[in-house]
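Entry for the shared binder. Reason: the reviewer on the internal report wants the predicted structure included alongside the sequence.
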Amino acid sequence: MNQQAPVPVPTTPSQDALAATLAALMPLGGGLLVALGYAWLDVFGLILGLGGAIGWAFWWRNKHKTFFPKDLRGGSVGGIGALVALIVVLLFISVS
């Protein structure tokens, strides 16, 4: 029997923009978390920050079942943006 492949659902420009923003924020936030751990607790903090960044990625994937869900919400990406902004502020305070 000849089966047809499912037709992919096209994404909207706003979904593409949210996915691109998420693709930029997640690695940035992970790297800043590692830097924050190093700034606070030296090598031990670096290891903790790396564990936190990996845990953050696993949490996001388990929550959404994929790293880039097709139905991204602005609130989810905004929450990640707020978390990254908080990490930036804490890192700036720590190194100043």
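Summary line for the report: The mean pLDDT is 90.
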